[in-house]
Design goal:
It is a single chain. This protein is mainly beta. Among the domains are: 188 residues, YVTN repeat-like/Quinoprotein amine dehydrogenase (Methylamine Dehydrogenase, Chain H, 7 Propeller), CATH 2.130.10; 57 residues, no CATH class; 154 residues, Methylamine Dehydrogenase, Chain H (7 Propeller), CATH 2.130.10; 83 residues, Immunoglobulin-like. Helices cover 1% and strands 47% of the residues. Strands 28, 29, 30, 31 and 32 form a 5-stranded antiparallel sheet that branches. Strands 1-55-54-53 form a 4-stranded antiparallel sheet, with no helix packed on it. A 4-stranded antiparallel sheet has the order 2-3-4-5, with no helix packed on it. A hairpin with a 3-residue loop joins strand 11 and strand 12. It is globular and about 85 Å long. The two termini are 32 Å apart.
Length: 704
């Protein structure tokens, strides 16, 4: 977190997420009318009238949770790898008490964190940990019970009853009497011989096998098929809570009112129903569209998500995820392009509410089929003049480039590729108006296959009878895996690429591809996605290390400074499949296996059109009146980043001036203090925004 605080003092630093809060790993009754749920998409609270999901940005520092426990000391959540967090009900947030178990890189046994008084017992796959929640410290970790090592005899279930701890393993049930209040002084706790091995015939209430044949509430047997898979109950927890019972399974939340056998399904998390995402793109409005591995598309923003539509029923996760597809493309008019692997190419309009065109392999069009009636594309991109979309379709005779026009026409430059399989694609206008199209090329379908980068120069179709033809190809040898994503830095006029193991850029003057020589702090490899922001910074997603922001030092692409963002900062998951930047609201979005997350910063907002005739936002100041002890900041937005903003008192004395990094994204945030750090006095104040010949003025009131 220290790293973030050193970035810039005036940047908005707001994280958020929307997740698919399943599967449910543990549950407990919270209050009389709700359940707290540990899921792989956060900690969820579900009641009859509330549905909240807590993620990294709420203080949890991760989003995959395996166990819950509650005592007089509070509610505690234990993450997949042993982070211990405590719930702060008044703030509706969490704070991490302990993260020392993370170093073991061993998973918690789902549902197996039990608490007695101040001692939390956590069962891991190869050890048993004792943790003091009152002192926020680990007491002891043991890896052996009796004559068995837990690595070879793994724990299946633990149970606390009064002063006894029971541990059920594959081979036996062990028991030990505990002095919970003085456990830290129990010298024999680490002695494997201090545990009693129970006879196999001895049954322990609470460790008996679950009855999978029936579900009973107040003595009544429920028959609702929602509660069963075939003849087996899917209910793992049955809580009697005030006016009824909560019935919870790994993918079920149901409620049965007292005195009734009717079932209310409370499973779905309405704010986010698209599930696992693998690709995300921004719309001109600032909203985003995401694609799921189940074949769904959904639009959303920081306030919430719309119900998804099916691009194709039954679309599986295999190709979309493993091939790192980047087929979502968006035009300035809002049209969205999408490819369903092996099936269709689709164009949507009107904020994804209308399918304009759908192209299938049975339409007799010019695009390739890799197998019979089986089209394959990994990437798509808007045409350089926004007249449509470009896609490379794989073919065993050499891939083709397909031009899908806004009017529905389809034109192909057939079999022009250097290899059979096309990867990701990028296109831009050259200085002479011709189209430059970059295509990653390989012979196999795997993202780790060695390949080349093909660069095509085509005459603009509007000057060529509408056809994409007469192109010339230059091929760059990569000598490693081909790019999985490309992004153009418009500040330095430079195309960047990432493969799964490398970052490089096109040096067209020397006709070569170059990797930066210095990226200190960057984890090598594991890359999945790439984007550039309005300042030319590179944002790189990875499959296990979160996200990196790379900034050129003194304008050099060969020496990059590195900032790292992970779950501890606010990411939903360190597995980032794709990312996209919204310059309207200054937000970068990330897609994950368990949902999406976002990060809002001033410097991601595009302020280049501010204070011009085409500006979408006028210079404005708020709140008025400004109450420094009530409002966190006084904001002036809609300015240019090259402005100087000055604040004067009623007598014309300068109170404070702001410039450069303080105006990133065209937004100033002032805390109401003068140059000496003191609160300014109440009264009338004036602000002046000056950017050369452009000036804006206004007044506001400060009230204490």
């Amino acid at each position: 977190m220290v790293l973030l605080l050193t970035v810039e003092l005036f940047a908005v630093d707001r994280w958020g997420a929307f997740s698919d809060p399943f599967p449910i790993r543990d549950a407990l009754l919270y209050g009389e009318s709700g359940v707290m749920l540990a899921t792989e998409g956060g900690v969820r609270f579900r009641s009859l009238d509330a549905d909240l999901v807590f993620h990294s940005e709420h203080g949890l520092e991760t989003s995959s949770f395996y166990a819950l426990a509650m005592s007089d000391y509070g509610v505690f959540a234990v993450s997949e790898y042993g982070i211990v967090a405590q719930f702060e009900q008044e703030k509706l947030s969490w704070h991490v008490q302990n993260r020392s178990y993370l170093n073991n890189n061993v998973r918690v046994i789902p549902g197996n964190a039990k608490i007695s008084r101040n001692i939390l017992v956590i069962a891991f796959e190869d050890r048993l940990a004792f943790y003091d929640v009152a002192q926020s410290r680990s007491i002891l970790t043991i890896d052996r019970l009796g004559s068995y090592e837990l690595k070879a005899n793994p724990i299946r279930q633990i149970l606390i009853r009064d002063d006894s701890l029971y541990v059920k393993t594959d081979r036996a049930v062990f028991a030990r009497q505990m002095s919970w209040e003085s456990l830290s002084s129990d010298r024999r706790l680490s002695d494997p011989g201090s545990w009693v091995t129970l006879p196999k015939a001895q049954l322990v209430e609470g460790l008996e096998p679950r009855d999978k044949s029936t579900v009973k509430v107040h003595g009544k047997e429920l028959k609702n098929p929602m509660l069963f898979d075939a003849d087996t109950s899917v209910v793992l927890w049955n809580f009697e809570g005030g006016p009824g019972n909560f019935l919870v399974g790994s993918s079920l939340i149901a409620y049965c009112p007292k005195g009734s056998t009717e079932i209310v399904d409370m499973t779905a998390y309405a704010p986010f129903t698209i599930g696992s995402t693998y690709e995300i793109a921004t719309l001109p409005s600032g909203d985003v569209v995401a694609a799921s591995s189940d074949g769904m598309l959904a639009t959303g923003n920081m306030s919430g998500w719309n119900y998804p539509i099916y691009a194709f029923n039954g679309f599986g996760s295999y190709t979309s995820v493993l091939k790192m597809m980047k087929t979502l493309s968006v035009l300035p008019n809002g049209n969205v392009f999408f490819h369903v692997w092996g099936m269709t190419y689709q164009i949507y309009s009107d904020a994804m509410t209308r399918l304009v065109y759908g192209y299938t392999p049975y339409d007799g069009l010019c695009f390739d089929n890799f197998e019979e009636n089986y089209p394959v594309s990994v990437g798509s991109v808007p045409a350089p003049d926004n007249s449509g979309f470009l896609v490379a379709t794989s073919s065993k005779k050499g891939y083709s480039i397909v031009y899908f026009k806004n009017d529905g026409e389809v034109h192909c430059a057939s079999q022009v590729g250097s290899k059979s399989v096309a990867g990701t694609i990028y296109a831009r206008l050259d200085e002479d108006g011709s189209w430059l199209i970059y295509v990653a090329a390989r012979d196999g379908m795997d993202v780790s296959d060695i390949g080349d980068l093909d660069v095509f120069r085509f005459p603009a179709p509007k000057s060529n009878g509408g056809e994409l033809a007469n192109g010339k190809r230059t091929t760059y040898k990569i000598g490693g895996p081909i790019p999985v994503d490309m992004a153009y830095d418009s500040v330095a006029s430079r195309l960047w690429m990432v493969s799964i193991s490398n970052i490089f850029y096109v040096d067209q003057e020397n006709d070569t591809l170059i990797s930066p020589s210095s990226m200190n702090g960057m984890h090598t490899g594991d890359y999945t996605s790439l984007a550039t922001d309005v300042h030319g910074n590179l944002w790189v997603g990875t499959s296990s290390q979160g996200v990196y922001r790379l900034t050129s030092k003194k304008g050099s692409p060969d020496t990059l400074s590195v900032l790292h963002f992970s779950e501890r900062n606010g990411l939903l998951s360190n597995n980032v499949r794709d990312l996209a930047i919204d310059p309207v609201h200054g937000v970068i979005w990330f897609s994950h296996t368990n949902g999406v997350s976002y990060y809002q910063r001033n410097d991601l907002k595009d302020a280049r059109a501010n204070m011009t005739d085409s500006a979408k936002v006028e210079v404005k100041a708020y709140p008025v009146p400004f109450r420094p002890k009530l409002h966190a900041r006084f904001t002036i937005e809609g300015v240019t980043e090259s402005s100087v903003v000055s604040i004067y008192n009623r007598g014309g004395a300068l109170i404070k001036s702001f410039r450069n990094e303080e105006l990133l994204g065209g937004k100033l945030e002032w805390d109401g203090r003068d140059k000496s750090g003191r609160w300014v006095t109440p009264g009338v104040y004036y602000y002046v925004v000056n950017d050369g010949s452009k000036n804006k003025k206004g007044k506001f009131i400060i009230v204490h």
